[in-house]
Amino acid sequence: MQRDNIPEELTREDLPLKANKKTSTCEEYLGGSKFINISFGTLSVIITAALIIQIYYGDYQVEPHGSVATDSLECSEVGTTILKKGGNAIDAAIASAFCLSVFAPHTTGLDADGQLLLYNHRTRAAAILVDFSDLPISTDLPRLVLGLAYCHKKYGSLPWKELVEPSIKFAREGFLVSRVLVQSIQLRGAEDLFGRLEPSQLVKVEKLGETLQNIADITEKQFDSFISPDNSPVEIDAYKFQFKRHSIYVPNVPSIGPMLSILLQQIEKLNFTLEDSKSTLYHYKMGEITQIVYKDFQVGYKFHEGTSSNVAVVDKNENYVSLITGLASLFGSMEMTSSGYIMNDKPKGVLCSRLPIIIVDSHHVCGKRIILGANSIALAAQIISYFLVNDENTTASIENPRFSMAANGTIGIESSHYPYFDKGTLQYLKALSSTEYLLTEPYQSVNVVEKIGDLLSSHSDSRSGGIASRFK
């Protein structure tokens, strides 16, 4: 099946993509046939086999006009459709975020808070951060809408209405419920909000559709009156630091961004080699140093780990956007408003642990550029290390096993996600905690777009059931 006349092999992450044979504009690039085979839905035997192939044999790469990776195939495709219409990376991120407010109400929504990181690799100017993580409750517009409206007014190119309309259609005509949404409803006991749903069930949220229509109809002049100095996002230069010959951009203080710098600096002091990264001791040392940083800097007590849903975008003009939004907990306040969305339950002034991330090779213009978002520095450090220490491909870096870090230093293990830690590694990690902590699904997801030379690969975490989308 094709969507919006986009060739199926370019919109689906589970079909192979072949490199364009045009002359590269970069001196360095990677070529060769590689495999991508990730399916939406349950982790069946077919999906497990596909992941094995993709993790160990690498990703197909393509010379595209753009890519979007989100927690939903439909929302990734919404983003690339916007790019195909001539929109930029900001436009695509905004449209995808509105889509996720329909598909992923357990992790984000119209009242979610968040941060957007913007970088242009052609100018290589400092990355810009738009932070709407601490906006007050507004009687005019929900927080996510205010944040996205600010970004659109400052950096968007397509009309606002075009960015909201795809989500209106999904809300009114229905969307297919994901496995992860069902798991979240069961875990939080949120049946009163949506009823007892089944994966792949068609659900309509018509009240939310009406609200999105009203949002789509807001004029630029009206936005000027809504976005006042009291409820305007903060825009500043991003915090930049070095790790493994790469520049990493994250939010600056008071966010958790500089804490990631501290953790990665400690990891770099261990001087891990590529060979070291294959050893059992490697994961133990990663867990140990993460635990030390969390304890020494009281990371888990200073920063609240809520939910997160991240959007990674690259457009044809080398604009890179990492947008991460979320609620203080699954389904936020657990109360549905008359407008069809759930209010966030975040106390004012509480700092969140989630952060958008953009990574750029410091020495080679055509080297690795990686766009992602993570819900904690423990998660971010592992993903970044998979890319830059282990030298893993895009799929392996996201799908490889991970641990979490609780505020008290207890290490949590994903018990039902393939691939698993080997027995030796599990024994080492368990030795760092006084109690064994098995994480329950849904797990935190990370979506990524990576570009090397003119070739691009992208991957949405199977933990969320999403699939990335690309187009030529």
Automatic annotation (TrEMBL):
Q: Which InterPro entries match?
A: GGT_peptidase, GGT_ssub_C, Ntn_hydrolases_N
What superkingdom does the record give? Eukaryota
What Pfam families does its record include? G_glu_transpept
What are the record keywords, sorted? Membrane, Transmembrane, Transmembrane helix
Entries under SUPFAM superfamilies matching the protein? N-terminal nucleophile aminohydrolases (Ntn hydrolases) (SSF56235)
Q: Where are the transmembrane segments?
A: 35-57
Q: In its UniProt entry, what is this protein called? A: Uncharacterized protein
